[in-house]
Design goal:
InterPro entries: AAA+_ATPase (IPR003593), ABC_transporter-like_ATP-bd (IPR003439), P-loop_NTPase (IPR027417). The strands form 3 sheets. A 6-stranded mixed beta sheet has the order 6-7-8-3-9-10, sandwiched between helices. The protein has helices at residues 45-52, 94-104, 110-118, 134-146, 164-179, 191-197, 214-217, 229-238, 257-269, 284-292; strands at 7-16, 19-29, 34-38, 60-65, 68-69, 79-82, 152-156, 183-187, 200-205, 208-213, 220-226, 243-247, 250-254, 274-281. By secondary structure, it is of the alpha/beta class. The longest helix is centred in the middle third of the chain and has 16 residues, at 164-179. 30% of the residues are buried. It is elongated. The protein is built from 10 helices and 14 strands. The chain folds into 2 domains: 7-215, Rossmann fold, CATH 3.40.50.300; 220-293, Alpha-Beta Plaits (2-Layer Sandwich). It starts with 6 loop residues before the first strand and ends with a helix. Bound molecules: adenosine-5'-triphosphate (ATP).
């Protein structure tokens, strides 16, 4: 059986004058899920998404969406792209925008109300976009991008301006879309939120993509605060653990969860008390630091 890739990039490059932003990248995504495109400001995430969606032409290479070339505009019946809010018209209402998109996709007007309710913007649907807040515009962009129930959805910084409850709503909507078979590729700087929705991270660095399965890099660290630090240090070293950090919070060690109880026993048998134990699971933030160095 031939499996048609949801997204396929073949040797794609993009140059602005002499600046090589995307450099002969290859990528195949062949099953539904969420992929996060991550990299520092100015690295080329928007450029790449724009090339994929044929908003700007790639300088070189081939791009296939749902098995079709991105030059075949028909494919965009099933593909959506949530761009930044500069694509919105201030003098039109949310309803006007959605009506326009529904007309293009030949969807009935009832879908406008349905999607507005779904993303929580029904109370300001008829207001002019010029009077929207940043978060309200983001809700509208989300509504526009999902109104056609896309099979493939690209999102450039979808969390911009969202308050915590809107971010939770966005997360739930993304997870629901994936359950229904949609593939989502989103760029975001919000690594904590990315960790909540996916383990598939694609780093963009020096024009190249690095695909990472976060699960394979996840480490559990425990911070132990003990009544006797010197004896504690010796216990860790004797058991073969390296203390990663020693601060007023305690001593941080990488330890598999299955070894924790045994180690607690060792500590208790040695006669010292455990004042506190905290657990930390490394996420995209730590992975990001290995590729790009510490943030801020
Ligand atoms: N139209 C353009 N003409 C010339 N250079 C451009 C153009 N658009 C973007 N660039 C340059 O390409 C590089 C990548 O920009 P891009 O907006 O794709 O980065 P990004 O990763 O999306 O950044 P951010 O995280 O800040 O949104 C930057 O150096 C930018 O200055």
């Amino acid at each position: 059986m031939i499996v048609i890739a949801v997204l396929k990039l073949k040797e794609v490059s993009k140059k602005y004058k002499s600046q090589q932003v995307i450099d002969e990248i290859n990528l195949t995504i062949d099953h539904p899920g969420i992929w996060a495109l991550v990299g520092p400001n100015g690295v080329g995430k928007t450029t790449l998404l724009n090339c994929i969606c044929n908003i700007i032409p790639a300088s070189k290479g081939e791009i296939y969406l749902l098995g079709e070339s991105n030059k075949n505009y028909q494919v965009f019946k099933q593909v959506s792209y949530l761009q930044d809010n500069t694509v919105l018209f201030h003098y039109l209402s949310g309803y006007d925008h959605l009506k326009f998109v529904c007309d293009i996709h030949k969807l009935s007007k009832s879908r406008i109300k349905e999607v507005a309710e779904y993303v929580g913007m029904d109370s300001y649907l008829h207001k002019k976009v010029g009077d929207y807040s940043l978060g309200m515009k983001q809700h509208l962009l989300l509504a526009i991008s999902i109104v056609n129930r896309p099979k493939l959805l690209f999102m450039d910084e979808p969390l911009t301006g969202l308050d915590p409850s809107s971010a939770i709503l966005m997360r739930n909507i993304l997870l629901e879309l994936v359950e229904q078979g949609t593939t989502v590729i989103l760029s975001s700087h919000n690594l904590a939120e990315i960790d909540r929705v996916t383990n598939n991270i694609i780093f963009l660095k020096d024009g190249k993509l690095v695909e990472v399965d976060r699960l394979k890099h996840m480490e559990t660290q425990y911070i132990f605060k003990l009544s006797d630090e010197d004896l504690g240090k010796r216990l860790f070293t004797d058991a073969g653990y390296t203390i990663q950090e020693n601060s007023s919070n305690g001593m941080k060690v990488i330890m598999e969860e299955s070894n924790l109880n045994q180690f607690i026993q060792n500590i208790q048998n040695s006669g010292i008390s455990i004042l506190d134990i905290q657990k930390e699971v490394s996420g995209s933030e730590e992975l990001y630091e290995t590729y790009f160095g510490k943030r801020g």
